[in-house]
Amino acid sequence: MMREAIINAAREAALVTRHKKVQIDYKTRSHKGLPIRFLFECAQKLNMKPLTSALAATMFHRFFKEVCTNEYDPYMIACTCLHMASKVKEDKVRKRDVINVAYSTINRGSEVLELSDEYWAMWDTIVQSELLVGRMLKFDMTVDHPHKYMLHYMRSLRDLFGAKEWAAMPVAPTAAAFLQDFHMSPKILDYPASHVAVCCLVLACEVYGTVVPLTEHADSSDNWYKVFCPDLTRDVHWDIIEDIISVYGAEATIEEK
User: Any idea where the Cyclin-like domain is (predicted)?
Assistant: First the structure.
């Protein structure tokens, strides 16, 4: 994919796609990208912190990297990962809330699930699934989140631009949005966290035509990321950016009627 096409796709994603979320009927639609979208929709309704939903998504991708997708209910695994992540990140989300939000998201327009056999069946399934997910992940819930690297890089860029100018630019929130959205793809597991973080920032700068200070007269003003990630090659840099953009293409496919 040509660089111009990648940047144009990113610009459309940043300015248009993110504001056009179509409500999906998870009961009647079938698409491999639906369960992870369901996970993030539930996380948003539960007011989870970005790190919590990112951890849940990472656990979800790690789990299905180890098993056959057809052997397990991905929606129940998504619920399980949400609850496990909330405990790891000490995000105050009750299992009951996870169950009710998941139920109402799948069954659009339904009432809150009463303390019925169906409710307790979901409760027991999540309990059993937590043990299953834990075993598949070898009980290793630690994740090297790209968020901490991004925050560090943003602080450095803020010092270069100046606090006032940096705050006025949309680069930071757009980069953060790219990062969170990239967690919808299992490809986020393929790269070091620091590389993912800096590529989200580079992409946001490219989208808005932002030139980093002191690079205007350099031979290549778009490889300033080398200061943060000297080991990130140009080819891998563009591979990551293409993978980020592919998330929005997948979203568009899901939303097609």
Answer: 37-121, 152-237
